[in-house]
Design a protein that fits this description.
Blueprint (H helix, E strand, L loop, with lengths): L6 H11 L28 E6 L23 E6 L2 E10 H7 L3 H29 L5 E7 L2 E4 L6 H5 L5 E5 L7 E12 L4 E5 L10 E4 L10 H6 L3 E2 L2 E2 L9 E6 L5 H12 L7 E6 H10 L22 E5 L2 E8 L6 E5 L4 E10 L1 E2 L2 E2 L1 E3 L5 E14 L6 E5 L9
Parallel strand pairs: 12-22, 13-15
Antiparallel strand pairs: 1-2, 3-21, 4-5, 4-9, 5-8, 6-7, 6-9, 7-8, 10-11, 13-16, 14-15, 16-22, 17-21, 18-19, 20-21
Helix pairs in contact: 2-3
């Protein structure tokens, strides 16, 4: 059959989505929906001047006061680089030809190929915004390629979508060495926290950290990597600059409660946070918080049954830092939570997810088979201007936050 050109298909993609593919973001995503700072000129990197201390040249006294002299504020420049994410997907000539004949046929193509492609892209972008350079699980044991993941580092939603994905095992989250090479996820048992991999894996042992291929020490820097930073991040060293480092809270050896989240929020307040914090907690822990929220529930004239006040979608109450909006989040590991200031958190970069680049459609003929390759592309990085407002928490016994 004659090869179909991508022109009709591309035009229908534009007609169907009007260039706004981001409207297809799955409803459970949070981080990909953050404000995209289009007004920031990226160039090679985006530059931010950061004040790390006050002006300190004060003098006090009565009458003829001797001046102590000026002590300038400490400031530094944060340099934020965006990172590219590209998704490749193939469609055969016959499928494309049928999709190009009329809008009804295109709708079937869109449902079977393009929408899953865009949703896959957004889910991967969300995961990288959350756990870029932090890893997706820690190994407890390896039994002939069946990797048992620790309770605290397990995230069922993440792993359910990774059958067929290529991962790598490293000895540590940073400055580690790789054990064996590429491992392909062959099966996932959500109930037992077991991930079966193929490929040479005998060297993978307990405490190894699992990463999506290519994300260990390059690519997007995720929210949890920002939260755990104790060194240099975006060109500024957190050592000696407490306002540039987030806060860590020990949940203890029992389930998470609203009281514990209030105590964690106080750590953010100690660094000047007096505004709304969004709190991401595991789905498994959210019910424990719903059961606990009655004593701290707020009543007001703007009561809404589907938000916060009765715990259907989120829980909202006030603490030392201001309002806390607690959200059940499917992309967080079961043993941790994180709270961050949404007002000071944004996406920096040259492009959100697109299927065109500089006006050119990213649809290409494959050299050795009768198919075309479609690509989606983004160039972004999550950035928090005030990381001192961020607090994350874990249990000291290594269990899930909702476990008794």
């Amino acid at each position: 059959m004659a090869a179909s050109t991508p022109t009709t298909l591309a035009s229908r993609l534009k007609e169907q989505y009007n260039g706004e593919i981001s409207n297809l973001v799955p409803g459970e995503t949070v981080l990909v929906k953050l404000k995209f700072r289009e007004e920031i000129s990226l160039g090679k990197s985006a530059e931010f001047d950061v004040q790390l201390s006050d002006e300190l040249g004060f003098s006090v006294g009565q009458g003829d006061v001797s001046l102590n002299g000026s002590i300038a504020q400490t400031s530094a420049r944060a340099s934020v680089n965006a990172y590219t994410l590209v998704l490749q997907a193939q469609a055969s000539y016959d499928l494309i030809s049928r999709a190009s004949t009329d809008k009804k046929a295109f709708a079937k193509f869109s449902d079977s190929k393009f929408i899953p492609m865009t949703e896959s892209f957004q889910r991967r972008q969300e995961l990288l915004h959350m756990y870029g350079r932090d890893g997706i699980g820690q190994v407890t044991s390896n039994t002939a390629g069946v990797l048992l993941i620790t309770e605290a580092s397990w995230c069922p939603t993440v792993w359910m979508a990774l059958k067929g994905a290529v991962i790598n095992a490293y000895t540590a989250k940073t400055a580690g060495t790789i054990h064996n090479g590429d491992l392909t996820v062959a099966a996932v048992n959500v109930l037992t926290r077991e991930v079966t991999v193929t490929g040479t894996n005998a060297a993978v042992v307990a405490n190894d950290q699992l990463f999506l291929k290519g994300t260990y020490d390059q690519g997007h820097i995720g929210l949890m990597t920002i939260a755990r930073n104790t060194g240099t991040l975006f060109g500024i060293n957190a050592v000696g600059n407490p306002l540039w480092s987030a806060n860590s809270y020990d949940v203890g050896t029992s389930a998470i409660t609203l009281g514990k989240l209030l105590a964690a929020a106080a750590l953010s307040a100690n660094k000047g946070c007096l505004e709304k914090l969004k709190v991401l907690v595991p789905v498994s822990a959210f019910q424990a918080l719903v059961n606990d929220q009655a004593a701290l529930r707020q009543y007001s004239a703007d009561y809404k049954e589907d938000q916060a006040k009765n715990g259907f979608k989120s829980i909202s109450f006030f603490g030392a830092s201001g309002e806390l909006e607690i959200v059940p989040y499917k992309y967080i590991k079961q043993g941790e939570f994180v709270m961050f200031p949404e007002r000071w958190t944004s996406i920096i970069g040259s492009s959100k997810m697109v299927n065109t680049l500089n006006g050119d459609d990213m649809i290409f003929d494959m050299p050795n088979n009768t198919a075309k390759e479609m690509r989606l592309f983004s160039d972004v990085q999550l950035f928090i201007e005030r990381p001192g407002y961020v607090t994350y928490g874990t249990r000291s016994d290594g269990k899930a936050l909702g476990a008794p």
